[in-house]
Amino acid sequence: MATVLRSYARHSALAKAEWVSWRASSLLSVMVAVGGGIAVALNGSGHPTIASYVDPILVLIACVSVTPMAIGLIREGMRELLEAAPPAPLMHQINGVVEATSRRFELPTPVIRSTKLGQRLYVEGDYLISDHQEFGIDDEDEIRRSITDGLGELGYQVWATVELTTDDRLID
C-alpha cells in the first residue's frame, strides 16, 4: 500500500500522511517479526533472561525509527499553517517564472511573497515602477496571467497577485 500511495503523496498532503503511516507500520511489522525471531532463538539457545529484553529494546528502536517521520509531517504542516515560504525547490521555480515575466514586460525585479497551503499556491509580486512608466489594469492582468500560466504546470491552484506602485513604502 505504501508503494501505491507514494506516487499520490507528491501531490496531496493527505496522501503523504497516509503514505508515511503505511511506511511506518511496515517498518514496525518487520521489526516485530525480526524481534520475535531473535527472542525465539535466544529462548531456544538457553538465554531466556536476555530474550526478555528484546521487547523493550524493540520499543526503543521503533520510537527512534518512527519519530523522524512524525516530526517531518508536523514540521511541514506547521509551515503551511504559519504561511511560511514554500519549500526551496518550489520557491526557486516561482522566482524563475516571476523573473521571466519581469523581463518580458520590462519591469524591475519585484518583491515576491509566496506560500503554499495544500494544493493552493499563493504568489504576490510587488513591482516598484518609475513615475514615467504607464501601466493600466489590462497590463496588470496580463502580468498576472503570465505568472499564473507559468506556474500552472506545477500542478497547484495558483492564486497570483500583482501590484504596481511608484511608492516604495507600499512594498516593504
TrEMBL record:
<keyword id="KW-1133">Transmembrane helix</keyword>
<protein>
    <submittedName>
        <fullName>Uncharacterized protein</fullName>
    </submittedName>
</protein>
<dbReference type="GO" id="GO:0016020">
    <property type="term" value="C:membrane"/>
</dbReference>
<keyword id="KW-0472">Membrane</keyword>
<feature type="transmembrane region" description="Helical">
    <location>
        <begin position="20"/>
        <end position="41"/>
    </location>
</feature>
<keyword id="KW-0812">Transmembrane</keyword>
<dbReference type="InterPro" id="IPR027469">
    <property type="entry name" value="Cation_efflux_TMD_sf"/>
</dbReference>
<feature type="transmembrane region" description="Helical">
    <location>
        <begin position="53"/>
        <end position="74"/>
    </location>
</feature>
